[in-house]
Amino acid sequence: MDPTLASVGLLIFRILYGIALIPHGVGKANKNANSQFKGFIKQLGVPPIFVDLSMLVEILGGLLVMIGAISLIVSAVLILFFLGTIVVSHRMKKPLATGMNPGVDLDILFLAGAIILLLLGPGEFALLAGPQI
């Protein structure tokens, strides 16, 4: 495959990944939603500070993925984040979404995307790509 074409594909993937991830963090920035979510995860035995950390990871991580900055570090953080999310949320979610009930399927897709970025890097069209595998 032409390396430039592969880089265009990675650029499109990174932009769409960020567009999909950022709204999850922005939703947690709402004061009411934030406090409700903190109460909810506290019941699961997760410290409420993780709501703020997840907001930061989803917003900042999504933006950094989109521009291709420090992709090795960002993708590693996202992998750890989504592994943790899957482990914690499996207690309250089904494996697959059903109707209006969320599943862990979206978390698995975000995890897969982060693994792809870790293995392939951001491509040619990246700002401050940083070290790669």
Automatic annotation (TrEMBL):
Topology of the protein relative to the lipid bilayer: Multi-pass membrane protein
A GO CC term attached to the entry: plasma membrane
Main location: membrane
Keyword Zinc: no
Subcellular location: Cell membrane
Membrane-spanning residues: 6-27, 63-88, 108-129
PANTHER family membership: INNER MEMBRANE PROTEIN YPHA-RELATED (PTHR33452:SF1), OXIDOREDUCTASE CATD-RELATED (PTHR33452)
Entry protein name: DoxX family protein
Originating organism: Saccharolobus islandicus (strain REY15A)
